[in-house]
Input
Amino acid sequence: MKLPNLSLTSPADDRYVKTADGLRVFCVAGVMWYHIWQQSWLEPSMQIFGIVINLNWLVRCGYLLVDGMLMLSGFLLFLPYARSAFDGSETGSVLSFYKRRAARILPSYYLSVLIMLFCSALPKGEYTSLSYAFKDIFSHLTLTHVFFPEGYTYTNLNVVLWTISIETQFYLIFPFIAKAFKKYPIGIYIAMVLAAFCYRDLFAAKQSDTTHLINQFPAMLDVYANGMLAAYVYVIIAKSVKENSALSLLSTILMVLCSVVIFHLFKGQLHESGYDNLRLGQMSRRYMLSLMFALFLLLSGFSLRPVKFLLGNRIMRFLSAISYQAYIWHSVIALRLKAWRIPAYNAPENPNMHGEVIWQHRYTFLCFALAIVAAIVLTYLYEKPLASLILRDKRKNKK
Output
C-alpha cells in the first residue's frame, strides 16, 4: 500500500510552473471585478466571523493587474528559452512561434471584433463620421488600435482589446529579444528597463495629456523584462537546488512580504486623485509592482506544498484555461446587461446611483456567472478546436 505524500515540500518543475495558473486567475478576475464595479458601484466589503474585510483597494485599482498579466506573459513565454540556455533543448523556429501565438489569440480576438462591429457598432450607428469608423475598424483589423485615440480611448469594438495589441507587439519582437536575453540576461534586462523608464519619465509623464501614452508598448518593456528575468532565475534555482524544506519555507515567507508590498502599492494608487495623477501614479508604480508580481511567481515555484496546491490545483488550471475568453467578453457582458436592465432595476437609469443594493449584488453575480459560462463555451467549442485545426499541419510535419 502506497502512503500519501505528507511532505510540505515538492520539487520545482522548470517546464511548467503550476502556480502561474493561480496568479493568472487572480489578475484576470481582478481586472474583471474592476470593470464590473465601474457599472455596479458595489462596495467590495464583507464580514466573515465578525471580521470586516474591505477589498476597496483591490477592486478600485484592479486595472493595475493588467501589468501582472503582461509580466506573466513574459515569464511563461521565456521559460522554455531560459531552460534551453542550460540544457540545450529546442525552442522552435521564429515562424513556429508566430504560428502558435496566432493560433492562440487571433481567432478569438477577431471573433470579438466582428461581433461587436456587426451586432453593435454598425446597427446602432455609433460612428459619427467615416474617418472615425475607418480608424476604429482598420486599426482593430491590423491590431494597431493603441496607436489611435479612435481605436484606443473611443473605440466601439470592446475597449479591453487594447492589451491584445500590446501583446502582439511583444510577440513580434520576442523571439529576437529572447535569443539575446539567453546570452546576456543582465544587459538586455537593464536595456529594457531603461527604455521603459526613459519613455515614461522623460517623454510620457511630461506631456499635458497622458491618456493615450500610458499603455503604449514601450511603457511595458520593464514589465515584460521582469517576467523574463524571473523565468531565467527560476530555471537556475530549479536546476541547481533539490527539494529543500528551508528553501520552501523561506520562499513562502518572502511571498508574504511581496504581497505586503503589492498591497501598499495598491493603497498608494488608491489615494491618487484626478485622472492625471492616477495615470502618473500608475506609471511611477509600474516597475515595482511588476517586479513584486514576478518575485511572487518565482518564489511560488519553491514554496510550501499547501501554497502550491492553493495556486496550482485543478480548479485554478481550469479557470486559467478559460481566462482569455472571460477577459475578452466580461466588459461587453457587463455593459449589455446594464443597458438591457438585466436584472431589473427601478431607477430610470444608472441604478448604482440610486442605492439599489439588491440590484448591485445580483448584477455583479450575474456578470461574473455569464462571463464564466461564455468563456467555457467559447474556449472549448471555438478557441481550442480552431487552434488545433490551425496547428494540425505543424504536428503532421513533426511526425
In short: The two ends are 40 Å apart (CA to CA).
